[in-house]
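User: Structure please.
Assistant: Input sequence and predicted structure:
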Amino acid sequence: MWDFDIGALPVVDDDGQLIGMITDRDICMAAYTRGEILPEISVAHAMTTHVVSCRPDDTIKTAANLMANHKIRRIPVVDDDYRPIGVVSLNDLALATIERREMSPLEMAGTLAAICEHRDVAPPM
């Protein structure tokens, strides 16, 4: 991920079906909370298993709405067999706004604000 400047990767099972997503933040948090070094932590222990995805024929606005509603910065695109075929990122939304005008700047700003909005966090015990 570091070598190729990738912040998130889909995780697939033996059949190539999407079963999770893992981000650079997930990896860092798993190392911190488990108190283990990276080679000791499996992807299964660090990945998110509740994956929100979209389809190739969805509009960019649909992907943006899913990202905003679920506060995620990247959303995998899956085929009919739930195999990942791509990922839509915040950068893709920005390009769709500026270059292709598929979203208005106001829609993009609203999406970004919703994604970045602080989540309710349980108080420390």
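The chain has one domain: 8-116.
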